[in-house]
């Protein structure tokens, strides 16, 4: 279904509710530049590290599209676990897993409360940005501590620049991208307001510092388009 959520006047904060879930795949494809390519890279790099029976967690799995694709492309059997606290997202995820015949354990839990036992790889694309900064640092520490010694964490985030002028140019470029995707100025400004204080982006350096402070030995950017970046961290 086509995302028309912000065509009408909306006063509430952004939520992953039934309305958003019903258009979510279209929303992501039209709101995150190179979303498909970023997902392919996530899977390509994940496959570099995965062996038979490894456990993979996707934190904020939404409709499970990344884990389904990983399951389809893997030559080995994996233990795939998707975690999200939106029932609307998970009910779609469950239907898609059945339709594609991919076995994924879907858990309706808060990322801050759940455990990530036996993790070889953790993925979290465009989700950490929705976790409050203090909780975010704790979550990253938990991910680090749960990963096996040679574990990998791949995550993507909307990012900001610490240079004010460049930051404004990045935001303008992003809004031009959204206009080219068919969103009106009204839809763009309504969504911006709804996301205020809900989506809290860091700079690239802040993301890397958070990762290294949690104990990871290495972190770098795998892919970046203006204000959207994908990182890989090695335990
Ligand atoms: C932008 S979406 C993630 C997109 C998805 N990773 C993908 O690439 O298709 C963020 C997801 O995180 C989930 N989420 C946000 N905060 C959460 C929390 N505290 N616990 C569990 N899930 C959360 C939302 O319900 C939503 O489905
Ligand atoms: O539309 C925006 O402004 C975005 O920031 C895109 C974004 C994201 O980065 O997560 C915001 C909310 C939805 O989850 C989908 C995409």
TrEMBL record:
It is an enzyme of class 2 (transferase). It catalyses: prephenate + S-adenosyl-L-methionine = carboxy-S-adenosyl-L-methionine + 3-phenylpyruvate + H2O. Keywords: S-adenosyl-L-methionine, Transferase. S-adenosyl-L-methionine binds at residues 35, 60-62, 84-85, 110-111, 125, 192. One of its GO terms (molecular function) is carboxyl- or carbamoyltransferase activity. It comes from the Bacteria. The keyword Cell division does not apply. Transmembrane segments: none annotated. CDD domains: AdoMet_MTases. Catalyzes the conversion of S-adenosyl-L-methionine (SAM) to carboxy-S-adenosyl-L-methionine (Cx-SAM). This is Carboxy-S-adenosyl-L-methionine synthase.
